[in-house]
């Protein structure tokens, strides 16, 4: 399962579990992607969330930036060819943030 999260170890999990981390568990996507909301609800989180606006830009758009805030110029350059791309750009442009968190699910 990898390295335990900072501040504590892995929780005691049933023998058949899966885990997921990153931005998929904390995005409030219900307005634009209800499938993500159904996916998120299946997981029990066990780490604190951390602001990570960089996550969708790196994973979806393969773009990086310096600093804490996403530059407006970078948002202007991103493609909006898919529903997911449009939702991510709108989310960040609207002043909302992206967060990372880890969770588990019994399989």
Describe the structure.
The protein is α+β, with helices and mostly antiparallel strands and 107 residues long. It has one domain (17-106): Aminopeptidase, CATH 3.40.630. The chain has helices at 34-40, 54-60, 72-77, 83-93; strands at 17-20, 44-45, 50-51, 99-100, 103-106. The strands form 2 sheets. It has a 3-stranded antiparallel beta sheet, with no helix packed on it. Strands 3-4 form a two-stranded antiparallel sheet. The longest helix is centred in the C-terminal third of the chain and has 11 residues, at 83-93. 11% of the residues are buried. The model has no long low-confidence stretch (mean pLDDT 79). This is GNAT-like C-terminal domain-containing protein. InterPro entries: GNAT_C. Pfam families: GNAT_C. Residues 37-105 form the GNAT-like C-terminal domain.
List keywords for this structure.
4 helices; alpha+beta; GNAT_C; GNAT-like C-terminal domain-containing protein
List the helices and strands and how they pair.
Elements: E1 17-20, H1 34-40, E2 44-45, E3 50-51, H2 54-60, H3 72-77, H4 83-93, E4 99-100, E5 103-106
The CA-CA distance between the termini, in Å, is: 15 Å
Order of helices and strands: EHEEHHHEE
Individual helix count: 4
- Overall shape: it is elongated
Number of DSSP strand runs = 5
> Which sheet architecture does the biggest sheet show?
3 strands, antiparallel
Quick recap:
Residues 37-105 form the GNAT-like C-terminal domain. The protein has helices at residues 34-40, 54-60, 72-77, 83-93; strands at 17-20, 44-45, 50-51, 99-100, 103-106.
């Amino acid at each position: 399962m990898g390295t335990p999260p900072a501040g504590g170890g892995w929780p005691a999990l049933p023998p058949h579990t899966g885990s997921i981390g990153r931005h998929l568990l904390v995005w409030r996507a219900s307005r634009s992607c209800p499938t993500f909301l159904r996916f998120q609800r299946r997981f029990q989180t066990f780490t604190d969330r951390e602001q990570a606006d960089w996550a969708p830009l790196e994973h979806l758009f393969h773009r990086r930036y310096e600093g804490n805030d996403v530059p407006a110029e970078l948002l202007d350059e991103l493609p909006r060819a898919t529903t997911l791309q449009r939702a991510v750009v709108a989310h960040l442009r609207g002043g909302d943030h992206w967060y990372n968190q880890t969770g588990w699910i019994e399989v």
